[in-house]
Amino acid sequence: MKRKNHLISIKTLTDNHLESFIRCPNQFYHQYILRKKSSGEGTWRQMVEFSVQKIILDYYRLPLKEQNVLNLLKLIDQYREYIHPGLFESKVQYYVTLAKITDHLLLFLTSKQQDEPPLFLFERLQVNVKELNINLSLTFDIGEWFNNRFIVKKYLLDIDERIVTLYKYLLAVFSKKAFGIIPDRIELFSLIDGNRHILSLTEQDVAKGLMYLDLVKGHIQKPGYIKQNDDLPDVQNENHFDLQAASFKTVLH
Q1: What string of DSSP letters covers 109-135?
Q2: Cβ 244 vs Cβ 50: under 8 Å
Q3: Which of 54, 45, 72, 3 minimizes the C-alpha distance to 234?
Q4: How far, in whole angstroms, is CA 55 from its chain's centroid?
Q5: Residue 88 DSSP class
Q6: What does the pLDDT look like over 47-97, one tens digit per residue?
Q7: What is the pTM assigned to this prediction?
Q8: Rounded to an integer, what distance in angstroms lies between the CA atom of residue 186 and that of residue 199?
Q9: 172, 201 in Cβ contact below 8 A?
């Protein structure tokens, strides 16, 4: 069955949609368009991401004086039961993954004492973007208003240059449309390798972000990157999308 000539209707794009598509267009199509259940790596990632969100959410809901290493370890132990070893390729992968995430949650969450509760705590918001003729839906992991500065923090399992670009432009466009301002700083935390990416935005990033999101939307609407055999990933077409993104990057810079 040919799908290249069929446009996918898009009314709302979420950060989950966009991140999934950027990481692997073929997997995005199967999960969000064909509604197939995830398996293998997709399943353990989902469960780990779910547990991490619950851990951070419960930690920030603690009174400020109780936000410490001991209570964070208790929360990590509590939510570990949702992550079954059988979801991973091996027990080694299971233990290594959990050890890394534990270490980096401790590093990121307890290295600095919070002075006051965050403005946003895993709140999902939606805004209409007329220029793109879609709604954008985005979860703010942590949103802080500190010394008249708007700071957004996002916790991800792993981060590469494509994901940094995505959240830079997505948050620039969303914040401008929803709040009339852009974040003064974006902090992306990688829980697998412990890296932190700090991004500063300018008003120019809003226009660039609209161009970027329009490009991604166009690729999602025209799924020519999908293998005719739905069970196999199309590496060549995934790389084709990266080349298109590289061309866009050249235009921006």
Answers
A1: HHSS--SS--SEEEEEEEEEETTTTEE
A2: no
A3: 3
A4: 17
A5: S
A6: 999 999 999 999 999 999 999 999 999 999 999 988 999 999 999 999 999
A7: 0.84
A8: 5
A9: yes
